[in-house]
Specification:
Helix content is 53%, strand content 12%. By secondary structure, it is an alpha/beta fold. It folds into two domains: 159 residues, Rossmann fold, CATH 3.40.50.720; 122 residues, N-(1-d-carboxylethyl)-l-norvaline Dehydrogenase, domain 2 (Orthogonal Bundle), CATH 1.10.1040. The chain is elongated.
């Protein structure tokens, strides 16, 4: 079977491993990134380098994107030199977290040039991108979904959310708000334990055998907080962006998000204190500072 030639724009911490998995699966790739360093290892493996997103879209019928912020995704999709200006692209498959409003704008801009938007934010971090164990949330017309399904199977488990642009983004934003919230509540509980004299590793083991178990206690605490490395692999600035989008979207729909609003504020402080490039597990570092303890195994 001849595989479709694909394009990939955005080869950072998530996009790079995903593009590598496509090469492993036998796909031919045309790629673009603003960073030469990001391009080099994939070019060395046989990917063809392009000088713009439009050039990628003139070489491939399906162009995947994995980019850090909504404005960058929008520019790559429908801005000058973007995918919309390519001569061959029929599908833009975006794996970024943009929020539903941006997704709808890009979908409309692409539709004017008969390019189908496929919204596919992912969850699972760098480890999931490398190992092909991501959760993929997809919203697009059914025929487009069936076309891209074999590509998505390279990356992990697929969840079809619906046809409307932006639906997958709603699910992803809710997930990312909850992921940040889990770190905060776990850190508060563990800081209380440490201050009382409890070994935090023992307490975390108890939580994982009890009803307080969550994604922070099972993964982020033992991997990045107890060792004090704060290096899980997701930037504070990106988490803050996602939670802002989540709360804004909920408020626009008239959905109360009181806990989400608090998560947003704590992320804002963490982002200001440790910087946007810090790891979002620094949420726990902030709680440590406020409590006057360190959560170390």
């Amino acid at each position: 079977m001849t595989l479709e030639r694909l394009g990939f724009v955005g080869l950072g911490r998530m996009g790079g491993p995903m593009a590598g998995r496509l090469l492993d699966a036998g796909y031919q790739l045309t790629i673009y990134d603003v960073s030469d360093e990001a391009l080099a290892p994939l070019v060395a493996r046989g990917a063809k380098r392009a000088s713009s997103a439009a050039e990628v879209a003139s070489a491939a019928e399906i162009v995947l994107t994995s980019l850090p912020t909504p404005p960058i995704v929008e520019s790559a999709g429908i801005g000058p030199g973007g995918i919309v200006e390519g001569s061959k692209a029929e599908v833009m498959l975006d794996m970024s977290t943009t929020g539903p409003a941006t997704a709808k704008r890009i979908a409309a801009g692409l539709a004017a040039k008969r390019i189908q938007w496929v919204d596919c934010p992912v969850s699972g971090g760098i480890k999931g991108a490398v190992n092909g164990t991501l959760a993929l949330m997809v919203s697009c017309p059914k025929e487009s979904f069936e076309r891209v399904r074999p590509i998505l199977e390279v990356f992990g488990k697929i969840f079809y959310i619906g046809e409307k642009p932006g639906l997958a983004q709603v699910v992803k934003l809710g997930n990312n708000m909850m992921a940040a919230a889990a770190i905060i509540v776990a850190a508060e509980a563990l800081a209380m334990g440490v201050k009382a004299g409890v070994n935090p590793r023992v307490m975390n083991d108890v939580l994982n055998a009890s009803t307080g178990r969550n994604t922070a206690t099972t993964d982020k605490v033992p991997r990045s907080i107890l060792p004090g490395t704060f290096d899980f692999g997701f930037a504070t600035g990106l988490s803050y962006k996602d939670v802002r989008l989540c709360v804004d979207e909920a408020e626009a729909m008239g959905v109360p998000m009181l806990a989400g609003g608090m998560v947003r504020e704590i992320l804002a402080i963490t982002n200001a204190k440790y910087g946007s490039h810090s790891d979002f597990t620094c949420l726990a570092k902030l709680i440590e500072e406020w409590a006057g303890v360190e959560i170390r195994g």
